[in-house]
Amino acid sequence: MTAADSRPIAILGGTGAAGVGLALRWARPGETVVIGSRDAQRAQATAEKIKQKLGNQARISGMENAAACAACDLLVLTVPFDCQAELLKQLKPAIRPHSVLIDATVALAASVGGRASRTLGVWQGSSAQQAAELVPPGVRVAAAFHNLSAELLNGDDPLDCDVVVCSDDAHAIQVTRSLAAKIPGVRAIDGGKLENARSLEQITALLIGLNIRHKGHGGIRITGLPPEAYG
Ligand SMILES: NC(=O)c1ccc[n+]([C@@H]2O[C@H](COP(=O)([O-])OP(=O)(O)OC[C@H]3O[C@@H](n4cnc5c(N)ncnc54)[C@H](OP(=O)(O)O)[C@@H]3O)[C@@H](O)[C@H]2O)c1
């Protein structure tokens, strides 16, 4: 599989637990990462903290979300579901044509005050499908990373979890699988059409429920596929 080819990765909402965890996992093997935030200073402070952890050679910086979209054409969205649509509407003029946007948002009921182990009904089918309706024409949307625990991403150990990638665009699937495969322990699997993101979000809610019940950090492994499916 090809690498992400040092294409800078902007993580929108990258100051939160999921965004910081992904940033760590990509900056560590040498990817260039831009932390995005509503507040440029908060983004820079987060990038600085990650640099302190990884060392000065880490290629990581922080910018306001719109500036991060203007600087990068590989975008990862890690914001709570209740602000996802509004943020994408704000960022639409800044998102470059032909960008790949990877949506990790989960429409958890917790984002509107409900239980974390339930998902909300999303009119379009899933958060990722909602994102696909809101980005400029030509932007390729993939759904991935929903089932990785932020707590484990922020640690140093390999993750015991597969990442299923869904998209209607073959290039977006390939780029997203390359990024996922950079996370130690993760196998990246083509999960087919973007509409399958609905199932990924439901699995997250199930995992959260299991983690609360059993006090753990459960992940998923997909078994029984031919070796090339995990490549
Ligand atoms: N936590 C996990 O284990 C995990 C794992 C996989 C996927 N996810 C999904 O990834 C997303 C982020 O999770 P998280 O735990 O990192 O969430 P979070 O910490 O609550 O939020 C992430 C970032 O979103 C930005 N944000 C918050 N409210 C906003 C608003 N109204 N408008 C624009 N930006 C706003 C904030 O950045 P600024 O204030 O700096 O702008 C915040 O740091 C969620 O959809 C979650 O379901 C989470």
Structure description:
The chain has one domain: Rossmann fold (3-Layer(aba) Sandwich). It is built from 8 helices and 8 strands. The protein has helices at 17-27, 40-54, 65-71, 81-91, 127-134, 150-153, 170-181, 197-214, and strands at residues 9-12, 33-37, 60-64, 74-77, 100-103, 140-143, 163-167, 188-190. Helix 5 links the parallel strand 5 and strand 6. Helix 4 packs parallel to helix 5 (127-134). The protein is globular and about 40 Å long. The mean pLDDT is 94.
> CATH superfamily membership, which one?
NAD(P)-binding Rossmann-like Domain
Poorly predicted runs are: none
- Radius of gyration (Å): 16 Å
Helix content: 25-40%
Order of helices and strands: EHEHEHEHEHEHEHEH
Q: Which ligands, by name, code or SMILES, are bound?
A: NADP nicotinamide-adenine-dinucleotide phosphate
Overall average residue pLDDT: 94
CATH class: Alpha Beta
Number of helical regions = 8
Strand order of the largest sheet: 3-2-1-4-5-6-7-8
What can be said about the biggest beta sheet? 8 strands, mixed
Name the structural class: alpha/beta
- Basic shape: globular
CATH topology: Rossmann fold
Topology, number of strands: 8
Q: At CATH's second level, what is the architecture?
A: 3-Layer(aba) Sandwich
